[in-house]
Write a structure and sequence with these properties.
177 residues, alpha+beta, Aminopeptidase, 8-stranded mixed beta sheet, 3-stranded antiparallel beta sheet, 3 helices, 19% helix
Length: 177
């Protein structure tokens, strides 16, 4: 799976585009029932796919609101957290985008997971293409790793990770498995 989420704005909270209102966020482990049939609801990915079976899948929400703003699937591997997939909710994708800041929040969740596991924030992932790789370099300080495994394998090192999570106020339950 490849990451193709856009980091539209680095914000400590989600920003409602229509009003400019700031919304505090929270995250938690997604329940299996929340991951079924999402494509029927307009989500691009099958979040119940067997490939994600070993991942911690987190949902991003606004405090006090049950509506899911995005999901991220992250797997704890040797010395790092590997991000399998990240997706904004259909209502947070242009042209009718409701909130800004979802993409950065999702990466911040994976970085918090990395910190909690003793990896100091280090995460890696595969960008879908060169344009997105450049986007992640510019927005998050990610670096392209030259490997034979994947043409656009990227990392967010510890220094960039700490700069990123310092921008976010999101709280939540990592409940790592």
């Amino acid at each position: 799976m490849q990451i193709d989420i856009i980091i539209d704005r680095m914000t400590p909270c989600l920003v409602e585009i229509a009003t400019g209102k700031i919304h505090q966020t929270t995250f938690s482990v997604a329940k299996a029932a929340e991951l079924i049939n999402l494509q029927v609801q307009g989500w691009n990915f099958d979040w119940s796919d067997a490939e994600l079976a070993y991942c911690n899948i987190y949902k991003l929400q606004i405090v006090g609101d049950d509506e899911i703003q995005g999901f991220i699937a992250a797997e704890v591997v040797r010395g790092a957290v590997y991000i399998h997939l990240a997706e904004s909710a259909p209502h947070n994708i242009a042209p009718n985008k409701k909130f800004e800041g979802v993409g950065g929040h999702l990466f911040a969740i994976a970085i918090k997971l990395s910190v909690s596991m003793g990896f100091d924030g280090y995460v890696y992932f595969e960008a879908k293409n060169q344009k997105l790789a450049e986007h992640y370099i510019n927005k998050m300080g990610a670096r392209l790793l030259r490997t034979r495994i994947h043409e656009y394998r990227m990392e967010v090192d510890e220094e960039s990770a700490h700069k990123l999570i310092e921008q976010y106020t999101l709280e939540g339950d990592l409940n790592v498995r």
